[in-house]
């Protein structure tokens, strides 16, 4: 079966499940479980059985304050919502999940997620390049402004010198005058 027939999750769906926590792009265990079409507790169980595969830079649990902040964003109810501190997975953690979850769906979802993370990284890189070029243009503008101001200063000095020359030529002369003048 081809990859496109097996899985068609729009990038926007995956992007909407990526959060920025502790200066890292991460995905919640519940979001990943939803995408893998497994229960969150099954995903957590598989991760805990293979905890050595998930160092702190691959997966971590939220602190109580992070969890409260996250829960206030989602809201809770008696019928669902976040009740337990979730595990969050970085891009590397998501990649490692493919070795823990062996279903075809998990493999295809991981490929889709990694591609989205890669696209996001490329977009951020392009954005940084654009910002750098804008800063360079701004710097050139400032340099150009300085050069233009210097040109105007020279023009003012030239005009002043020219005016002084005209005043010098038009001054009232004193002293001996030739008869022709």
Summarize it:
The chain is 63% helix and 10% strand.
Which radius of gyration do the C-alpha atoms yield? Answer: 35 Å
Number of strands: 6
Strand content: 5-15%
Please work out how many helical segments DSSP would assign.
Answer: 7
**In which order are the strands of the major sheet placed?**
1-2-6-3
**Percent of residues in helical segments?**
55-70%
Q: What structural category arises from helix and sheet content?
A: alpha+beta
Q: End-to-end distance, in Å? A: 109 Å
Q: Which residues form runs of ≥5 with pLDDT under 50? A: 1-6
Overall mean pLDDT:
81
Reading the helices and strands in chain order gives HHEEHHEHEEEHH
Which overall shape is indicated by the principal axes computed on the Cα atoms?
rod-shaped
The major sheet is characterized as: 4 strands, antiparallel
What does this structure look like?
By secondary structure, the protein is α+β, with helices and mostly antiparallel strands. 63% of the residues lie in helices and 10% in strands. The chain contains seven helices and six strands, in the order ααββααβαβββαα. The longest helix has 66 residues, at 104-169. It starts with a helix and ends in a 12-residue tail after the last helix.
